[in-house]
Amino acid sequence: MPPAGAGDICAVVLAAGEGTRLRPLTERLPKALCPVGNVPLLDRALARLAGLGLTGPARVAVNACYLAGQVVAHVGDRAHLSVEPGDPLGTAGGVARLRDWIAGRPVLVGNADAYLADPAAAPGPDVAALLAGWDGEEVRLLGQPAADSSAPGTFGGYAFTGFSLLPWRLVRDLPDGFGDLVRAIWRPAEAAGALRVVPYRGTFYDTGTPADYLAANLHTARGGLIDPAARGGLVDPTATVTGRCRESVVGAGAVVRGEIVRSVVWPGATVRDGERLHEVIRAGDDLTVPAARPSARI
Questions:
Q1: Is the pTM of this model over 0.85?
Q2: What confidence score (pLDDT) does residue 297 get?
Q3: How many other β-carbons are positioned within 10 Å of the β-carbon of residue 276?
């Protein structure tokens, strides 16, 4: 729970980006709606916030820009919606545009494309650690030890894992227009000794590349509801699988007549008889995106 005097915590899920590294998948769906373990990434973020008691349009906001209509239709009345005109405003710009809605509250900001799997497989305990003992003033980031502690984008030897906690005084002063939270808030707070990284001990992928997106899906298959016939795979009960399926994720209404190994088949997609897919993502009947080595942080 937030500390006394900090005000009511609100949350913003950033879902406006174009997902250029996931193209051509994101030419069909915004990255925030790409399924991981047959659940859209955005729904995973909203469920995580719900585990902290943050639900509804008074407490949770979602921004949208690229393919915004799909995001708006998907969110419905579950959260306050901020649709950015033109090009995406970036992480800082997206939060700044919600200033009137945030209205004096501290804000928990999460990236819709962050896949986090808690060690205890329960929603919320990792992000809850950001709030524990918070003084209402310092900036907090969720992070894991970086493979290269001197690499750009690290903070005190940690790599960011998708969620940050920001005090209102810094959100209030964010400039309008395009900007990112790294330069606008995180680095200045770090320089002032007012940034703290809270360790996250679960598994994290940012799902920004086909390799990491595939790896996150395969992680859900290992820990999800396993279809015994899938040999370590996660198969939606409405899918039709008459071919071979090993260590893969198959979405609702998909049809698999060929062989899939360590792959993801999107809802409604088809794998034809005679096809063999290995470490790829299949969308529709005609799009196959190969994956290279992922960059897991566990």
A1: yes
A2: 46
A3: 12
